[in-house]
UniProtKB/TrEMBL annotation:
InterPro entries: IolE/XylAMocC-like (IPR050312), Xyl_isomerase-like_sf (IPR036237)
Gene3D superfamilies: Divalent-metal-dependent TIM barrel enzymes (3.20.20.150)
Name this polypeptide is given: Xylose isomerase-like TIM barrel protein
Organism in which the protein naturally occurs: Kushneria sinocarnis
KW Isomerase (keyword) present: yes
Keywords in alphabetical order: Isomerase
Molecular function as annotated in GO: isomerase activity
Keyword Ribonucleoprotein: no
Stretches that traverse the bilayer: none
Amino acid sequence: MGPVMICTSAFGADHVTRQGQGALIEHIRRAGADGIELREELLSHHDQPLDELRRRLADSALRVAYSSAIPLFDRHGATDGEALGRSLARAEALGATFIKFALGDWPAHDEPADNALQMLLARFERTPLAITIENDQTSRGGDPQSHLQLHRRLWQLAPDSPRVGGPRALSTTFDLGNGYWNGHPTADGINALAARIGYMHCKHACNDGEGWHACAPDDATLETWSRLWRSLPADLPRALEFPVPPDDPAALRRQVDRLRHLPLKELC
C-alpha cells in the first residue's frame, strides 16, 4: 500500500481548463487521495493568481506534485533553460514538493549534451524541489537505456553534485502505460530503472483502431502491475493518470482504493 496522487489531466483537458485545477482540489481530497499532480499544460486564467491557488492547496493538506510541460530535451536534442526555469519557479510558487519532467529526445551524442547537462544541474541545485524524470511516450525518452545514460553522464560530469548522489539525487517517474506508445517493454524498463524509481504513473492503454489512449486498468492489468512491483518498495507513491468521470465521487474513490492497495499481496 502507498500514497495515491491524482493527476488533474485524468478529468479531461476541456473540463479542467473550463474551471481551473483549483476547482478539483476538494473533489480529489474527498476521494481519499493523498495528493494532487498539477499539469502545467492545463494551467489557465482560472488558476491565477498562483498564490491564491497555493493557498487553496495548502488548506487542503494534499501533497502537491507539479508536472512540467517542458521536456529536458526537445526533438532536436536541445535544452530550453529559460522555459525549464519558469517551470521550476511555478512549481515553487505553488508549494509543490516535487516536479516531474519528461526526458524527451535524449541526444545520441554525448558532446552536445554536456553543456546542457551542466546547465540543468546548476538550475536543479538551486531549487529545494525534488526532481523526477519520466519515461515519456517518445522513442528515446521512453527508452530505459537513455535514462541510464543520463545518470551515467551526470555522474561523470559532476560526481559531487547533490543532484547526482544522495537524498536529493534525480529520481525516475515510471509510467506503467507509456510503453504502448514508445515501444519499450514495461518489464524491461522497471528491471533497468528499479533502483531509481521514486514515483509511479498508473494508467493502462487501449487501442480503438485509431491509436493508443489511456484507460482504466482492469483486474488482469492490476495483477500484472503487482508482479512487476516485486522489485520496488510496496509504499511507493503512485498517481492515477487515466480518465475518470468528473462528477462521480464514488467511482473515483474506488479507483483510488484500487491503486492504494498495489501491489496485491497475494501476487507478491
